[in-house]
Amino acid sequence: MIKINFLPALLMLMCMLPACAQTPTTEQQNKNAMDNKNQKPEVVVNKEELKQKLTTEQYNVTQMCSTEPPFKNKYWDNHITGMYYCVICNSPLFKSDTKFDSGTGWPSFFKPVTDSSLIEIKDTAYGMVRTEIQCAKCHSHLGHVFDDGPRPTGLRYCMNSASLNFIPDEEK
Ligand SMILES: [Zn+2]
After folding, report:
1. Which of 81, 108, 138, 163 could pair with 142 as two cysteines, CB 3.0-4.6 Å apart?
2. Residue 89 contacts residue 140 (beta carbons within 8 Å)
3. What distance in angstroms lies between residue 113's CA and the mean position of ligand 1's atoms?
């Protein structure tokens, strides 16, 4: 008789799931995501230069689509008024007044600064269909968007702090 031990396999699978993933996105979002896939970035990055400039975590998240740990990142609990910029190209991405406490341990927003600040890419990694969010200018990975956010948009932009640079209003 062959005995299969499911527990290690199950644990391995759970470790592979990025914790940001919770709810599948809507069909409309996926369609938009598909439409964005072939756009060229306005700002082309030099990966070797970025490796020198960024921390390992910033590089892995923005360039390798990695996910930082929840609750152990810079901005998940930041409540200061200001603007969140792309850490790579400085494009403004999110205002602090659209940030909300999602309970996930990642900085979460219900809306980007403008409709053209971000692009959506269909992400089928880990056997799930999700919508990846990238900076529209440089195509750096920022996180994912889910449709379980608060009003008025109902969206939850689940971002990595490592992809963002926060500037408080008083420093501008
Ligand atoms: Zn950018």
Report:
1. 163
2. yes
3. 13
Q: Which residue has the higher pLDDT, 1 or 56?
A: 56
Helices (H), the chain: 6-16, 27-36, 47-53, 56-64
- pLDDT above 50 for 141: yes
Q: Provide DSSP, 58-106.
A: HHHHHHH---PPTTSSSSTT---SEEEEETTT--EEEEGGGEE--SSSS
Q: Which residues surround ligand 1, an ion (CB under 5 A)?
A: 86, 88-89, 91, 135, 137-138, 140
Ligand 1 centroid vs 86 CA: distance in angstroms?
Answer: 5
Give CATH for domain 26-171.
Answer: 2.170.150.20
User: Any idea where the domains of the chain sit in the sequence?
Assistant: 26-171
> pLDDT tens-digit profile of 17-53?
444 444 444 555 555 555 566 678 888 889 999 999 9
pTM for the whole structure:
0.79
What's the pLDDT at 14?
41
